[in-house]
């Protein structure tokens, strides 16, 4: 029986997240008047709501306005009741939901814990709730969350009393944890931007983070979104939601779980964590700005709640600072974040020199010293500089200085700006209020300003890399000469696949016998140079470890010695290859992530990927721009650009290889993983020295294990 | 003529930094009544001072109380005038200082810029000021600083009006920049701890950061010190001051200049930056807690203003959190910072289980859920756990929860504790005030709490590593068979030095001719295994790059081929060595840092040191504990502990090598640098495969160049 089948109870039906976040009436089940009880705290929070809030308690005291049942409460409501807020134990939840749904309620907040995360009877409670939700269609937020709030509607469904003071703001908060939702709301309130909607997902039994992200895409009051993630249940759906939302407004994401705190995490979320590094990488690829902690999340969301920057590969900052010391902190941070502070054009510097004394630094940062008359002209000259995409302004507040007025006088509407101020709390607030009128965010402190500016640049870059997202990255299995889709895949066959994908391999010969090996050696050695001889066996994944690789074979005698050794190691077939030129070794792999599905991983060979976890990751399909940007994300990128007279990476060829290998994985569901290790950067271009293709899907890429 | 030679002007003389920070009377030179002028802002800030503040202006209007000269002002003062605050241009500074000194003033604050950092005439102005200071002994703070403040004495010598609202606190701030001094003061005020003394060093012409650190060591109002550094003029003196101060109170240091912003930095400081990485490492060695930005500096100083932890190699945190989501953020951060969260003892968990419902996680972190009755017993059980050194408490504030009262009831006086809270601003302040009564610092937000706890652990570790600081690390040049102190140093001689220092080298033979080389080969090969043959020439630093190293020589024919090649590369002498076992290569160097003097640098071989800048640095002499801790500071430390069946590092032998090599550099002033590259970790212990000794001092270690 669906809620729609109940006639006459509700005059109209509001469904989906509108019922949750824009209810006409609310029924609070488990309402209490005993101070300290959750049901009492929730009642107090909901008291500010303009529509009807009906209180239900199964053991109603003789309190006026408290109903003994949901039916009675809904019937007494002057408005349709769309939302049920449940402050009842886990064991009582399913029944309450069923009763609510039966009376036209289409959304519910379930605060209690004690479901799947607790094990035991909790598993049954959760199954019962799922069954009711499936049966009735009621949308459940929770369980195990402290709630949500929409300050502009005076709707605060939270048992944290402090939410009463939250003002309407422009940042949407979607937090895995109810607690973190509150933390972010209080910090955003303190930052002067406030929240449009704050949601703690909790166990995510019904309403999930992607659901809320989709809702926020349409929510006009939301200028930017702060996303907090612990574990991800449905990776592709999350990425899709972030992709579509970030196309419309900035999304900043904090992913918890860099380090192994799995026992505690599991007790909290009831789910296993996936790779932190992969989650961050694919969120970034989907258009999010990824940050390191909740301090940075608040600074970034605050900065991005103002004017959004245009897509730009490397958005450059023009920085105007009234104090050199804080300016140095900001410049240092921006350099570290890869955000350019370009030298201003001569014309801009001339304009600035007309205002500032010659003692100050005027090239960028512009050190104004104590701002005086003409300060607005300095701001204007920096904002108008052709190399400047973003304007950063820092000052210790002074009564003589009205930054917002100067900014207004400067007329720099076209350039996204962020102000950093320090001073007594009241001066900071005055600056915030003045700048709010111009839509310019204000952050307190040089590092906060730097984090905000870096977030603007990261958003501009993420949007730039998404352009042309759909070109040429589709599933593609080569038709030319690679045999059936299925294995077994020995190195020769894996390399034939690479050949067909256009990824260069060394010239090679397969040999089933020693005689064939000698003939192959003679052929390969004819052109000069030594030969590599390897064991050829699809069942051996790590040839080197069992002595299955012999390099630098330059004579028949050495070949015989190598063949002896390979036969001793169990070889019944051999692969002979011309030795490759020297160069820098990369690792390129495509595999199926348990959460996000097909991904490609690029790293530097040797210890870099494993010990330093220095990898670039993309979900598939990957756009050409995004593939081209992968090597630049490696900490060791300088190795790829003529390091110590070494070779220069052909970035286009690498992007080709990334897209081709990724396309093959997408096209062939039998393949669990394909890895080229090493993929060598040489003076003559990229060459794949070894390759492994694995099926079925049971072996994750080792480079993706976080340290 | 020194100030002391002027008779009769002052009844007594107060000298040194007491005159600056505890003046009896002040003369303000360049006082103004024109709003917006520096001299007016300074006059306003100084107005709150209880002692006499005499105003001087060379063009006095008919304003009562403004004197036309310093002499006149000092004569009119009812108290001795110890401090002159100068708001006059650079060109007028030296004369004003001279006049002040002549009338018994022993300290001065010089705010103006336009000295050496400006070049040109500024150089002359600076020379003049230096001359006056040298002649009269007057202590000059500045030039180019916005001043200092001692809120508890109502002494605020700053032209930033907001300082009027700063309250007396317990953190001493020593900032390279006047602006950053103010930033830190405002942030510490907001954090609820406030400053005891805040100083912007500016150009540091007279009073330097070490001077103020020494003063703060004796200042009873100062519980912890926040240090901001841009460039360091006198490295050894700074380290000495930090060493002595941190032995008494915690020191937190922020070093700006990770990235190259040299042009702007130079315009600001007039000095060249030294290595950021070295500065941080040696500060840590000297006992400071080193942080990454000013947000972390404030959080760390706030946390360390409470009870100081006992020295401990790895101080462990017991974390009690009322919300799991923020708890996960804290635990994740602490794990990343290497701070253990040990599983609580069964007894502690039993005590906790008596209070908390079975659904919560109780092993550490302890997830209390919404705190209720018995919460104090949970805190007590965690604090009393034998594995717990530090107590972290987190909660979103609620009216029902008085953390400070619970903490008091728990009676956990013995364990340093930090509270993290979130909620409306007024609730956070209430929590701060309540906890202040117990001497427990309060931070806002889970990441802030984590940063604070990590700072406590870092302080405990720094103090632990300093114990036994003076043992066995002295200058020591081996007397046995290494010839004269001076070079030239070819590889054979460098290795003889290592032998004498007790650092193992492979068995080797020197050969002046091919015949000698063949004889040496026969001898070395007798024991089995191949031989390395190298060019032997003290003038060649990079043998490999010119083909001067031939490995794996296993026959007379191959030896001849190698000798041919070496002769072609210019060799007139050869070094033959037995090939070493495989293993993991380290780099160990001792060199003279231009700022900090003798240092040792340890890194992993290959690209790790250069590309990832993964190095551990120590100033010399280095204590055994500190030397032992070096490999653990490498990001790649897992390589040294049986990585993939590889060898295990003998940490004691490495510490021996660090101290021996460092001792040799300390003992022999002729040596600029000694580097062992590689120093291989093998199953049979450490072995030095190549060594270079360089004199004179003109070639810095390349691994110390920051990326």
UniProtKB/TrEMBL annotation, chains A, B:
Keywords: Ligase
Highest taxon in the source lineage: Bacteria
Gene source species: Sinomonas flava
Membrane-spanning intervals of the chain: none
Region (Disordered) residue spans: 467-488
Domain CoA-binding: 20-115
Pfam families membership: ATP-grasp_5 (PF13549), CoA_binding_2 (PF13380), Succ_CoA_lig (PF13607)
SUPFAM superfamilies linked: Glutathione synthetase ATP-binding domain-like, NAD(P)-binding Rossmann-fold domains, Succinyl-CoA synthetase domains
Protein name: Acetate--CoA ligase family protein
Gene Ontology terms for molecular function: ligase activity
PANTHER family associated with the record: COA BINDING DOMAIN CONTAINING PROTEIN, PEPTIDYL-LYSINE N-ACETYLTRANSFERASE PATZ
InterPro entries per UniProt: ATP_grasp_subdomain_1, CoA-bd, NAD(P)-bd_dom_sf, Succ_CoA_lig_flav_dom, Succinyl-CoA_synth-like
